[in-house]
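Operator note (shift B, R.M.): manual run for CoA transferase requested after the automated queue skipped it. Running by hand, logging everything below so the morning shift can see what happened. Input copied straight from the record, untouched. If output looks odd, do not overwrite the archive copy; leave it for review.
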Amino acid sequence: MVSGKPRAGSQAALPLHGCTVIDLSSGIAGGYCTKMLADGGAEVVKVEAPEGDPLRRWTASGAGLAPDADGALFAFLACSKQSVVVDPADAADADLLDTLLAAADIAVWSPDSRLSEDPRYRPDALRRTHPHLVVTAITPFGLEGPWAGRAATEFTLQAWSGGIVGLGRGAPDRAPVHIGGRIGEWFAGAYASAATLTSRLRTAGSGAGELVDLAILETQILGLTYYPVSFFEGLGRPFRTERRLSVPGVATAADGMVALGCGTAQQWFDLCAMVGHAEWIDEGIAPSITQRATDKAPEIFAWLADQPVDVIRDIASAFRIPNGPVVNGANATTMDHFIDRDFFTTNPRDGFVQPGAPFRTEPPLLRAPEPAPRLGEHTETLRAAPPSATPRSESGVPDPLPFRGIRVLDMTTFWAGPSCTHYLAMLGAEVIHVESAGRPDGTRLIAGVPASEDQWWEKSPIFSGLNTNKKSITVDFRDERGRDLLHKLVATCDVVVENYTPRVLEQIGLSHSEVEAIRPDAIMVRMPGFGLNGPWRDNPAFAYVIEDTSGLTWLTGHTDRNPIEPYSIGDPNAGVHALNALLLALEHRRKTGRGVLIEAAMVEAALNVTAEQVIEYSAYGAQLERDGNRGPTAAPQNLYRAAGLDEFGRPDRWVAIAVATDDQWTALRAALGDPNWAHDPDLADAAGRRRRHDDIDTELAAWCADRTPADIIRTLWDAGVPVAEVLQPHHQVDLPQLRSRGFFEPLSHPAFDTAHHSTVPARFSTRPEQYHRTHAPLLGQHNTEVLTALGYTADEIAELDRDGVIGGLPAVVRPTVKSQ
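Run finished. Output pasted below as returned.
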């Protein structure tokens, strides 16, 4: 059994023991990045200006705080850290900070604080004065490029990313809707942690530091859209062109809300039977399953409305239809599965309920949370006894491919698992992607390419976007020879990653104990939807179900309607958290030579990035609610329709505007020409603007209606107001900022047109000339290469192919040939 809550133990046993991090960031992204590093054993010193990180005074619900109290979200993110106050105008304080930086290994930086904006402490200056440091900078657009330094909020970044309309989220009769809960900031923090750990692995022992320049826009592209540029350029059409609500999606039952998914033909057939309309099955599945479900929505919702939630979930589970409760901050801690897994824990300083770790390991690699520091709590201690700089070697050159020499057995499918292993493949690991010819990776089959086309199974740009640089072998696990092949392959691999339902590996003889017996130093990453134990253990876990059961869905949508599933972030969020766990395990193995078992349950990663809901409810009794395109940090914040038709001939062009500060409000007012309505004294501060949000929306909607998106953006952005066009996601590649940073790389493929592929969301000082070096593999392309290296003869390989144990064709097109 993988350990649950981190156990108190020897700090020296943690993978980042001896690593010192100076946290010069503010806000969620930097706070979550450094929290993950602290959890892994790093000594994190949060350096704050005398006024402190603004998060110390933040509550999403507006709950009042005592003058000396910290907000609960800060107390969660700052667990296990130290706090030092530095006034940049004070020479003694500046000397203290320089001493801390000289002794540190990593600095994490974000803009918008008085301290981090000081020229001495900007990333380029830190690299000049402390060249040994890994400096991770977290900014909206990156440190360089035509949009560097431009005004932005997470909301406007969602618009620029294409994530607001990327998967057709929202009702067609309303504006598109963003994903609530500031998810982009949390996701960027998780990626910043992974990028920082990557750089540490690359630079360890070299004496050279590195700049890690992470752009939140790029993380949102990876988390909120589904490889739309590759899809559009590879197939000549967008993935989706119109908004629609999922059916069933989140539905009203007799005693509450329930979430149900229907994404495959079999799930549609089962849903028909479940709601008492088996005759619908005989009507076929043309048009698409999604359209058929939409056409039958009235009857489906009527049936669901008459049934209690528990009855619906029991029947759906029996049919293997993806389902889950709609979780929020108030009910999350009451769910039987989370109780059974003992997931939630208590904040060690302030006593409110907070999420446990986003992954579990054996042996334990995470420390139990320690109390967050009060402002400046450790200043005088470190001033009196400052740390000494560790002698560092000046030899060695960092490897552009830090995972070179690591071999990964990639037994994953769809999005979550492949996104984790793809990062390793882009940065040098040899990744062997295992599929079955009978059941190829699901992303091969979702491109909408007719089966009448030659090699239709090779024409998925989404599969391509997730699997470049990998090798592909096909293995039929049901055959004993296939299982024997996998066992031989495990013996050659440093890492095994899988995201099957928990029972599959036990059935094929690859439980952790069996892997450990074959390869004692192997790192095994298991990515079940809900964990290896608990009442929901065997439930199907598609991205939207993870979103439903973690609170991501709850905060997305309009107040007067049921919430809307994001339908995206649940998978890549699981992938980047599993990646963080794997990087810690690699550090542990480097130090000890021993392997690690990682249990990275998708839902527990999601519950960490929705932590604010549970924390606010526990600390203040406040249940956070969805509010359309408005948000807790900016007022006004909304989407406004602009003039003109979109590329599909519809009056559906939108801009995102978000005013996060009083200075931005002043700038907006001036850019609008100082209209009389904007001078109302009630609008002078954020509280007043929030109260009068409807009135402001009316005025801004009228102003935008006569202007094109380009006109609006030019007028407002030049004035310093956060604004964005709600981008169709296949146009991401056209953004000048992304072109400047080289975020997309063109790649040819034998089965479809050359297409641009997204890379990693951080520019490393030391990086490969090209991330995508080979196209995604054809089905079974490397069977002969891999099996020959395992000792199979040509005759043995041919026999396995004849018998269907391996192969290069899906079972539906493979000729039936028996060995003689």
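Quick read of the result: The first strand starts at residue 20 and ends at 24. The CA atoms of residues 162 and 728 lie 5 Å apart.
Leaving this for review. - R.M.
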